[in-house]
TrEMBL record, chain A:
It is a multi-pass membrane protein. It holds the Pfam family BPD_transp_2. This is Ribose import permease protein RbsC. InterPro entries: ABC_transp_permease. It comes from Geobacillus icigianus. It comes from the Bacteria. It is found in: Cell membrane. Keywords: Cell membrane, Membrane, Transmembrane, Transmembrane helix.
UniProtKB/TrEMBL annotation, chain B:
It comes from the Bacteria. It is a peripheral membrane protein. Keywords: ATP-binding, Nucleotide-binding. The lineage of its organism: Bacteria, Bacillati, Bacillota, Bacilli, Bacillales. The keyword Cytoplasm does not apply. Gene3D superfamilies: P-loop containing nucleotide triphosphate hydrolases. Part of the ABC transporter complex LsrABCD involved in autoinducer 2 (AI-2) import. Responsible for energy coupling to the transport system. Belongs to the ABC transporter superfamily. AI-2 autoinducer porter (TC 3.A.1.2.8) family. This is Autoinducer 2 import ATP-binding protein LsrA. The complex is composed of two ATP-binding proteins (LsrA), two transmembrane proteins (LsrC and LsrD) and a solute-binding protein (LsrB). PANTHER family: AUTOINDUCER 2 IMPORT ATP-BINDING PROTEIN LSRA, CARBOHYDRATE TRANSPORT ATP-BINDING PROTEIN MG119-RELATED. It is found in: Cell inner membrane. It catalyses: ATP + H2O + (2R,4S)-2-methyl-2,3,3,4-tetrahydroxytetrahydrofuran-[AI-2-binding protein]Side 1 = ADP + phosphate + (2R,4S)-2-methyl-2,3,3,4-tetrahydroxytetrahydrofuranSide 2 + [AI-2-binding protein]Side 1. Its EC number is 7.6.2.13. It comes from Geobacillus icigianus.
Length: 337, 516
């Protein structure tokens, strides 16, 4: 299923050209293989509802993974995205339910919080020169603590009881719920949002001057600095963009489930990282790229959907997620050599 | 026979004969200096002695008994110690001084599993006293100064009972006072019967410390004898031979106005301050040995390193705190470490060469691809980059072509001051001529060029004016046309610059046949 990449490794000595082919097209083959497998074994797999469901769940992962892709492009890493998703989910739910805000503030507050997390990360990494993994590990914990402290560990939902005895004044308004649950021309709005972001980010990174400079900064920071590129500025932008997209993912998540669940974003870190690393190998790009990231999250989404249908429990799915990430890392490492 | 002797040592790498029947010996209690230009064969000879390279022919004997070293361990056991130039590579920074000194013992298979820390510390303290170092044995190596690290390596070498010690450029990074202290320790150890092989380009120091000299040139011994009988000038002439051209540079003309000046530029590594200036269209060389601080100066001039000072470019004064600002003002650096500092290896030639042109090639930040390809192809053609396609990945190019890409990214930009740091390192003769042609045409266009190099002949070939750099200081600003190769080598090696420029011409005329 997801195995061609991994199982190909032993044949490396005998057939390098096959491996080359698998490297370039392995992700696509894996997606097709997974779809075919579940299509044959699961009756309900090939239904419009199921595909719509897969795409909805992919849309959030893809948004988060695009943020991670930006941090990878500048040769950084952002572990705090999962916590940022949770924070944005809680923030938008709180704005709606506790403070009776309209759509504008409800969207603005979580996005600003996402940008703030990005600025905090870049302060630690770019200014104080902490290692990116450790700095974002710290912010991941701190941000998770912030959203837990704010909610005291309780979820935020319509008509929830308040400590003073009354019920919450606001509720999830339809315009907000439309983001995660509505459809345009029969396509879920969140999927359209994802496609728009994918295309915009792809065009930005491939065809614009700042996009080029993001890549150059990540490929050789010293050469970039000696070429007059303000590398610290671009690294800061990357973490801010990462925080922004994580927050956007959090908004879509809150809208989709219609409540503010605490720590709801935690699982998106692993899915997003796996998607971004799988993306390295799509079409043999050999570097982080948005189109690859999209295919990576499609692979993850289809696989997890199928496994759920096949009654594989969610905790066992983590084993498969881990295995996929190892496979993707092995592939990108092999490509570098 | 008493002492260490090497007879008829020969070694070829491929078709290149690096050593051609070299004899060399050291007696206990003497300092024998081994001299020669880069590529003369010094390192190869010493690596044979240290067991890192096996000779094609020749014998090594200690006290008359022949010995063959098949590994560095054999050499160590036979009593040969090597204090390498980069002492950091020989030490464990996170361990204490005594643990470092005991490290070799630990690696031995016969070592008892339980060690006495007290004994180890006492032993280390005794060895440290022997090398004149008064630091506690428990100090971490990463907290030690470079001078201290060097002596720790020396102590480590002594701990394995080395009787013959190779010192490779031991003073390259030391201050004058530290050098004096090192020499005092060498004298002390000489009294105890240790024999030293001393490799250095700092000829004045060699004269001070060495008892005997052996000078290599092109893999042969060209001089062997007592150190006192040879003047500094004669040493340089032996090292260089006399068949070198003086300045092959056809007289260039350049502007009379000062286009670039830097005042009070500090170099963090050496703690020195530099002033320099250059005229419009002038090619100014910075000549100095490896370790003189040239790269540090170049990187300070573009504010890539922490520095202070003041810049003046075509009459305007600047203070730079990052390369971004320096580049905006028209300074650019072609760095020494091309692949590490100059190139985006996974990218195409096009992306590498247009990085400074993107603002011009983009509209509303959108890169106009056709124009970008056109600009890149034009540069590829005019620089003669091979293969002649801007779509090639730059990592597939040869060193010379990669260098052209690094230079090419600054052509057609607002760069007015070009800093070239060892631009011919690792490129072939043909590419070197191309690079020289590019540099000359830049200067002819009125750009100012600073050329940092340790290759004296190159400096004379390309430069109009040459600064001599020694130990982080610029000692003199000399017109290249009045310099000979030997003079320049002599000055860079620490020779006095107060004599009239003609001294070597006379020496060559008098003794010409002797050295050739």
């Amino acid at each position: 299923m997801n195995q061609p990449a991994v199982s190909a490794t032993p044949s490396k000595k005998t057939a390098p050209s096959i491996l080359e082919f698998l490297y370039k097209h392995g992700t696509l083959l894996a997606i097709l293989a997974v779809i075919a497998y579940f299509g044959i074994t699961q009756d309900r797999f090939f239904t419009y509802e199921n595909f719509s469901d897969i795409l909805r769940s992919i849309s959030i992962v893809t948004l988060v993974a695009i943020g991670i892709t930006f941090s990878l492009i500048v040769d950084g890493f952002d572990l705090s995205v999962g916590s940022t998703v949770s924070l944005a989910t809680i923030a938008s739910a709180a704005a709606l339910v506790l403070y009776r805000q309209e759509i504008f503030v409800t969207l603005l507050v979580p996005l600003l919080l996402g940008v703030a997390v990005g600025l905090l990360n870049s302060l630690l990494i770019v200014k104080f020169k902490l290692p990116d993994l450790l700095a974002t590990l710290a912010t991941m914990y701190a941000i998770n603590g912030v959203q837990l402290t704010y909610t005291k560990g309780f979820s935020i939902y319509n008509d929830m009881p308040l400590p003073d005895g009354g019920t919450a004044p606001g509720k999830f308004i339809p315009s907000f719920l439309f983001i995660g649950q509505g459809e345009l021309f029969g396509v879920p709005f969140s999927v359209l949002l994802m496609l728009f972001v994918v295309i915009a980010a792809h065009l930005f990174l491939t065809y614009t001057k700042p996009g080029r400079l993001f890549y150059l900064t990540g490929e050789n920071r010293e050469a970039a600095r000696l070429s007059g590129i303000p590398v610290n500025r671009y690294r800061t932008y990357a973490y801010v963009i990462s925080g922004f997209f994580a927050a956007l993912g959090g908004i879509v998540l809150a809208s989709r489930i219609g409540t503010g669940q605490v720590s709801a974003g935690a699982s998106f870190l692993m899915d997003g990282v796996a998607a971004a690393y799988i993306g390295f190998s799509v079409f043999g790009a050999g570097k982080p790229n948005v189109i690859g990231t999209l295919f990576g999250s499609i692979l993850m989404g289809v696989l997890l959907n199928g496994l759920t249908m096949a009654n594989v429990p969610y905790y066992a799915q983590d084993i498969i997620k881990g295995a996929i990430l190892v496979g993707a890392l092995a592939l990108s490492h092999w490509q570098k050599k | 026979m008493n002492g260490l002797s090497m007879r008829g040592m020969e070694k070829s790498f491929g078709a290149v004969r690096v050593l051609d029947g070299v004899d060399f010996d050291v007696r206990p209690g003497e300092v024998h200096a081994l001299l020669g230009m880069n590529g003369a064969g010094k390192s190869t000879l010493m690596n044979m002695l240290a067991g890192a390279i096996s000779p094609d022919a020749g014998t090594i004997a200690i006290d008359g008994a022949p010995c063959a070293f098949s590994s560095p361990f054999d050499a160590k056991r036979a009593g040969i110690g090597f204090v390498v130039q980069e002492v950091d590579t020989a030490l464990f920074p996170g361990l204490s001084v005594y643990e470092n000194i005991a490290a070799d013992e630990l690696a031995r298979a016969t070592q008892r599993p339980i060690r006495s820390l007290r004994q180890e510390k006492e032993r280390a303290a005794a060895l440290l006293r022997r090398v004149g170092l008064s630091i506690p044995p428990t100090k971490l190596v990463r907290d030690c100064s470079l001078h201290e690290k060097q002596l720790i390596v020396l102590a480590k070498v002594l701990s394995s009972d080395a009787r013959y010690i190779i010192l490779d450029e031991p003073t390259a990074a030391l201050s004058e006072a530290e050098t004096k202290r090192l020499f005092a320790i060498i004298h002390e150890l000489k009294q105890q019967g240790v024999g030293f092989i001393y490799i250095s380009h700092k000829l004045k120091e060699v004269q001070e410390i060495a008892d005997r000299l052996t000078i290599l040139r092109d893999g042969r011994v060209v001089y062997h004898g007592a150190a006192g009988s040879l003047s500094l000038e004669d040493i340089v002439l032996h090292m260089t031979g006399t068949k070198r051209r003086t300045s092959a540079n056809q007289a260039r003309t350049y502007g009379g106005d000062i286009a670039f000046a830097a005042r009070g530029i500090t170099i963090d590594k050496t703690g020195t301050t530099i002033d320099l200036y250059a005229h419009r269209g002038e090619i100014v060389g910075i000549a100095g040995l490896v370790g003189a601080g040239k790269t540090e100066l170049a990187e300070s001039l573009i504010a890539h390193r922490k520095t202070a000072g003041e810049w003046e470019i075509e009459g305007r004064r600047y203070v730079f705190s990052s390369p971004y600002e320096a580049i905006a003002a028209g300074v650019c650096l072609i760095p020494e470490e091309r692949r590490k500092q100059g190139l985006f290896l996974p990218e195409s030639v096009r992306a590498n060469i247009t990085v400074r042109l993107l603002s011009r090639l983009a509209r509303w930040q959108w890169i106009k691809r056709a124009q970008e390809a056109e600009a890149a192809n034009a540069l590829v053609r005019s620089l003669g980059i091979h293969p002649p396609s801007s779509a090639t990945a730059v990592r597939h190019l040869s060193g010379g072509n990669q260098q052209k890409v690094v230079i090419g990214k600054w052509l057609n930009t607002n760069a007015r001051v070009f800093l070239f740091d060892e631009p011919t390192k690792g490129i072939d003769v043909h590419a070197k001529q191309d690079v020289f042609a590019i540099i000359r045409s830049l200067a002819d266009e009125g750009k100012t060029v600073l050329y940092f190099s340790s290759e004296c002949q190159e400096l004379l070939d390309i430069c109009d004016t040459i600064y001599v750099m020694v130990d982080g200081r610029l000692l003199a600003r000399l017109p290249a046309a009045e310099l000979t190769y030997e003079q320049l080598v002599y000055y860079c090696s620490g020779g006095e610059i107060d004599e009239p420029a003609g001294r070597f011409r006379d020496a060559v005329e008098k003794n010409g046949t002797v050295y050739s």
